[in-house]
Structure formats: C-alpha cells, structure tokens
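Appendix B, record 7
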Amino acid sequence: MKTSIYSQHYDHSGWLNKLDFYNDEMKIMQQKLEEVNSKNTANEVRKSVEHFQNQLFIQKNNSDKLRHHIKREEKEIQNSIKSNPVAVDHRKTEDHTEERSMMESFEKNFNLLRKEFNAFLSERL
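Structure tokens (predicted):
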C-alpha cells in the first residue's frame, strides 16, 4: 500500500509520543514495585516483584529498540526529501507495515503486563 511521506512522519511522531508515555508509565510501575517490596517480606511477594522488574526491563528494552528503529526510518525519510525535494507533497512511498506491526505488538504486550501488574497491586497495596 502506498502512502504519503507526511503520513509516515505523522505516524512516527505519534508512535514516539506513545513510547514516551509508556516509558513514563514504566517508571511509575517501578516505583510502585519498590513500595510493595519495602512493605512486604514474604518470599512469594518478592518473587512477584522480581518477575515484574524483569518484565519492565524487557519492555523498556523493546521500547528502546522500537524507538531506535522509528528514528532510523524518520532519518531515511528526511534524507529522501533532501535528495529529491521536488514534488514531496505528491510523492508516495510504501506504507511502513513492519513498524506498525511492531508498535501494535509492543502495545498489546505492554497492556497485558499493565493488566497483570494492576491485579498484583490491588492484592498488595
């Protein structure tokens, strides 16, 4: 499917903003984990805290990789415009289905983690 360069830029900007939001949310989740950990000494709780810390680490890593990929794609768009600025308003390019799929997968996984995390918090706080 073909799309405009501006449409791709708009998607990239939106995705980067979403990743900023998720990164902020991960920081808040980490703070909540530290609070739970300080208030509970039970082995079961400590294992759950460690599980969520590991999951947050993985999600942060995934977010960083996705951010890097999106920024690289954005740089390619900018280079394309610089190398051929004629009719940039009308030029079509292939839609970035891979990036869209990566972002959707990240959001799906993060939302599942958030749901599991909130259930854990509701039992512990």
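Remarks on this record: The longest helix spans residues 43-83. The beta strands are 2-4, 92-94.
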